[in-house]
């Protein structure tokens, strides 16, 4: 997974003078910073590349040790080293005009640019700017940009998100876990915390647990076909369960669920339900589901393999983002579909490419609870 771009730009001191900033993201979440200076540089004694290593993870609480925090972006932006930070709070509180200060988070590899937008109900950047920032070659690189905004209708906060294609989804499960951790950082809150968050999918309540995991009350699934929405004909009351969907000449069996955003879940075709998700060409088949005429608002699509009644594996093609390493609302929809089709019980581990989520659909209140991690990747600033 690309975390940030590396760009080599000339400086005003001459064509041979340059600085190169490279951020890597191995599984250990270690990052290297490589700097190269010419003799005309302000640090003339450094003639050879040097390597500075630091660690950023969910326990990172002292960014004062980070001397470089900006990421390279598109050609309209420049590499820069912001002034040295004295504390995490001072970084998050910075208000220089013309700059966007952000923290990058990920939930099982589903990565987001988090922006402190608590002073306004309008996002600090446009959807077009979000597309540029999310670009993994010429931007920061992310699946979306999330804004922490003032609450409305009595809620603590509001969440808005722009996908990497500039579209705005109703909600994002992995994203809201990241938002909960981001809010705790902004408010300097420690230990177990919970928030009420207004989203396009309604009220969502994430809770930060003592171990740092985030459990989210995702609300009740929406099963009525017209509310998902899907044009597929209901075949079980007003729901679409294990219905036939023709995609590129193949008849798939699908169940349609909304978690505030639409999902099409499939465990296989009419010929075989023994789906081997790792063998799928997701880039080829995913867009055909997403843009199918039966889904007027487009759809997220989950392809599911059943290991046991409590263990599922899925790959996801997200509406507006494509193939991602994880999708929280998708994992919830998968468990609902698995129960409705008789594949699984109400409490499951769902394996995603980025790692597992724990999903529970409680019978007593019909609500779905998702539990999983959210971790800091790095802090940064970009000129707008």
Commentary on this structure:
By secondary structure, the protein is mostly beta strands. Helix content is 13%, strand content 36%. It has two domains: 8-219 and 375-383, Diaminopimelate Epimerase, Chain A, domain 1, CATH 3.10.310; 225-366, Diaminopimelate Epimerase, Chain A, domain 1 (Roll), CATH 3.10.310.10. The strands form three sheets. The chain has an 18-stranded mixed β-sheet that branches. Helix 4 links the parallel strand 15 and strand 16 (300-308). The two termini are 24 Å apart.
Quick overview of this protein structure:
With 384 residues, the protein is mainly β.
Provide the structure class: mainly beta
**Total number of strands:** 22
Q: What is the CATH C level class of the largest domain, in words? A: Alpha Beta
CATH superfamily placement of the largest domain:
Diaminopimelate Epimerase, Chain A, domain 1
- CATH structural architecture of the largest domain: Roll
Q: Portion of residues in helices?
A: 10-25%
| Largest sheet geometry | 18 strands, mixed
How large is the share of residues in beta strands?
A: 35-45%
Counted up, domains total 2
Quaternary state of this entry equals single chain
- Roughly how many Å is the radius of gyration? 22 Å
What distance lies between the first and last C-alpha atoms, to the nearest angstrom? 24 Å
Shape: globular
Mean pLDDT: 82
**Low-pLDDT residue spans:** 1-86
